[in-house]
Amino acid sequence: MKRRDFIKKAGIGSIAAGSISAPAIVNANTKLKWKMVTTWPKNFPVLGTGANQLATAITDMTDGRVKVKVYGAGELVPAFEVFDAVSRGTAQIGHGAAYYWKGKIEEAQFFSTVPFGMNSQEMTAWLYHGGGMPLWEETYEPFGVLPAAAGNTTVQMAGWFNKEINSVKDLNGLKMRIPGLGGEVLKRAGGTPVNLPGGELFTSLKTGAIDATEWVGPYNDLAFGLHKAAKYYYYPGWHEPGTTLEALINKKAFAGLSKDLQVIVRNACKMVNQDMSTEFTAKNNAALDTLINKHKVDVRQLPDDVLAKLQALSEEVVSELADKNPAAKKIYSSYDKFRKQVMAWHEISEKIYFNVR
Ligand code: CA
To answer: Is residue 230 part of a domain?
Structure first.
């Protein structure tokens, strides 16, 4: 202890001597303890374990200079208070998805997913190389929060239903857990969207409090046992074609890190962003096989006319959001320009290849 104290004091002393106005950054001997709050149940497959992986990566790559402890939803703060907890500094870092904050920052939804919008590959390309990231940073700036892409679910499933969906009329009166812009679309189709954290889905569906729920895809849905609470499993996940998950970093905490630690934190997010996507791809196909062949789940495609109606309503919802909110308009124009370009390229690359292979 004495030796450590001595080293600490020596470190602080040398900064003070070097520059009067030196910021309160950590030196090589300082150990910081960061709390990470998450919107996911603790250790939940991929979502929770991905957050754990981010925490471990930061802790290990900094050799314990920034030690991150993860809290599942409800452990330190409820799932939907993660953003506020990071904003006010209760936690230094968080892990969640931007559409959960739509009540506070409507335009944040563009940084998670847009119905019938870009897939995971395209979202990541827009954020890192197409101008998305600076817009995201600007969006969270007033809240003292620095965002980072830190995971992607890849294309989701439309969800679990206890009512058959044979026509647009079947959406009428449908009470469904569906977050973000997709929820607005369902509302316009006559349904009632509800937003519930993942941990409440099984019981809500099983008791009939809701008629349907979406969650993520086969691997995560199987983990919650949703096949034991619903009759039909519909695809595709029109509402979440590639949802970006996010790390939220308290800006003051981040500014207090030395340059090398900042680079580590940013790159740990980038690593997890890629790794969670690939884990979803790897696990979803095995889980789909289990759902169909072991649990005999009735897997169905949403009818074409239902998808066409949902797509038309999605365009309405998104353009109205852009029209009434200047910040949303700025983000959407960047998103939409990139989407159109990448779609033209993917028409003759990914899409044609999927069709011919
Ligand atoms: Ca979902």
So the answer is: no
Note whether 178 and 157 are within 8 A (CB): no
**Which domain CATH number covers 45?**
3.40.190.170
Residue of higher predicted confidence among 20 and 113: 113
For the chain, the average pLDDT equals: 93
User: In DSSP terms, which residues pair with 305 in a beta bridge?
Assistant: none
Burial class from Cβ neighbours inside 10 Å (0-12, 13-18, 19+) for residue 270 reads middle
Give the domain range for residue 98.
Answer: 2-155+242-282
The stretch 289-307 carries a mean pLDDT of 98
69 domain residue, yes or no: yes
Distance in Å, CA 156 to ligand 1 centroid: 7
- Per the structure, the count of domains in the chain is 1
- 109-157 pLDDT, tens digit per residue, is 999 999 999 999 999 999 999 999 999 999 999 999 999 999 999 999 9
Cα–ligand 1 centroid distance for 245 (angstroms): 11
Q: How far apart are CA 346 and CA 357, in angstroms?
A: 15
Task: For residue 203, give every residue at least 6 positions away whose Cβ sits within 8 Å of its Cβ, in sequence order, or none.
Answer: 209
- CA–centroid distance, 44 to ligand 1, in Å, is 14
Task: Note the pLDDT tens digit of each residue in 174-228.
Answer: 999 998 899 999 999 999 999 888 889 999 999 999 999 999 999 999 999 999 9
Ligand 1 centroid vs 334 CA: distance in angstroms?
24
Q: Is residue 135 part of a domain?
A: yes
Cβ proximity of 320 and 255 under 8 Å: no
Describe the crossing of helices 326-347 and 304-324 by its angle, rounded to 10 degrees.
140
Q: Can you read off the two tokens belonging to residue 169?
A: 């009329």
- The answer as to whether 60 is a domain residue is yes
Query: How remote is the CA of residue 144 from the centroid of ligand 1, in Å?
Result: 27
Q: Which residues of 112-149 are buried (b: 16+ CB within 10 A; e: fewer)?
A: bbbbbbbbbebbbebbeebebbebbeebbeebbbbbbb
